[in-house]
Amino acid sequence: MIDTLTNTVLFVMLVLTALAIVRMERLFAVVMLSSVFSLLSALLFVTLDAVDVAFTEAAVGAGISTVLMLGTIALTKPTAKRSRHTAFVPLIVVCVTGAALVYGTLDMPAFGAYDAPAQMHVGPDYLARTPDDIDVPNVVTAILGSYRGYDTLGETAVVFTAGIGVLLLLSGLRRRREDEDEEV
Amino acid sequence: MIFHHLILRVVTKLLVGTIILFALYVQFHGDFSPGGGFQAGVIMAVAFILYGIVFSLESVKKVFPEWLVHKILALGVLIYACTGIATMLLGYDFLDYDAFAPLHPTHGQHWGLLAIEFGVGVTVTGVMVAIYYAFAGRPPSLPDEDW
Predict the structure, then answer these.
(1) Residue B147 domain-assigned (yes or no)
(2) Is there a domain that residue B67 lies in?
(3) Structural domain includes residue B27
(4) Which among A40, A38, A47 is positioned nearest to A68, based on CA atoms?
(5) How far apart are CA B67 and CA B42, in angstroms?
(6) What is the H or E stretch that residue B99 is in?
(7) Cβ contact B119:B79 at 8 Å
(8) Overall number of domains in chain B
(9) How far apart are CA A129 and CA A37, in angstroms?
(10) Do A137 and B31 touch (CB under 8 A)?
């Protein structure tokens, strides 16, 4: 009962935030609202007992990306450009996609069902083996670090590559401009 | 400029240490509680970014210079990969942490997890701070009054 209430309230707030973001023109407010949106999603993850994901969403979505978006606004313009196109076609596309997604969820197992495919495959195996193999209470860490250590190494490499990419794009450009200035 | 935002500056000075302490807790307590290297790295980076926002980019670069950020960005991946190579040198599979304590495999797993989580945390801290430096280091086109 209380779960349903919490979920309903959070989802309503999520939708309201999204609508407010669409209506806004001042980008500063948009960035702040998307930070709120991230915080609300983090709360939703907490109600789903996915605390690790909630943690990441709160830190990255609400924290770092807000700062980076603010930094981007400082480099560009504080207001959104008005679109000259009508919003009719995008609205239809969004409605059709949304309806397709909702139709897709009709076939999904009920929320929290014990016989959902996600609970039947390798999940129980990991849960049963972790105390003997690794003996850490947080099974998420055990799976990410030990059973799936290769994947996490790959993810770390992806984070590293992304960082290098941004550095090349942003700081490389500045150096080239300075060089051109020197040549002139 | 430096005399502006007195409350923000005092609160930031109080918070930064606490945030770093919390990041270390998330980092090294990841086997027992939610979180791990990725979350800890982001929280650690937030401490420096907050300091940079409230004081200035120059003052945070004095604490955490740009060359060091660029070094640790790569160091984390190296720590992770070298953990795997170490297990191979000890005669086990790549990233099979049993190698660190053959008589007590779960202890080996604990040490291996600590090592790789540390690697992840170091890289994520480096990447987040580096991206922030890259964004904040460019001259803003928007004057302060236009916000």
Answers:
(1) no
(2) yes
(3) yes
(4) A38
(5) 19
(6) none
(7) yes
(8) 1
(9) 37
(10) yes
Q: What is the three-class DSSP state of B106?
A: helix
21-40 in chain B: CB under 8 A from chain A: 26, 30-36, 38-39
Domain annotation covers residue B43: yes
Is the Cβ pair B73, A164 closer than 8 Å?
Answer: yes
- CB contacts under 8 A, B 65-94 vs A, are 70, 73-74, 76-77, 80-81, 84, 94
Locate A170 and state its tokens.
Answer: 């942003």
State the residue range of the domain holding B52: 6-140
Task: Give the tens place of pLDDT for each residue, B9-41.
Answer: 999 999 999 999 999 999 988 888 887 888 899
- Write down the mean pLDDT value for chain A: 86
**Confidence (pTM):** 0.84
ipTM of the complex, rounded to two decimals: 0.87
B12/A contact by beta carbon, under 8 A: no
Place of tokens 């020197």: A182
CA–chain centroid gap for B46, Å, is 9
- Phi then psi for residue A121, to 5 deg, are -80, -110
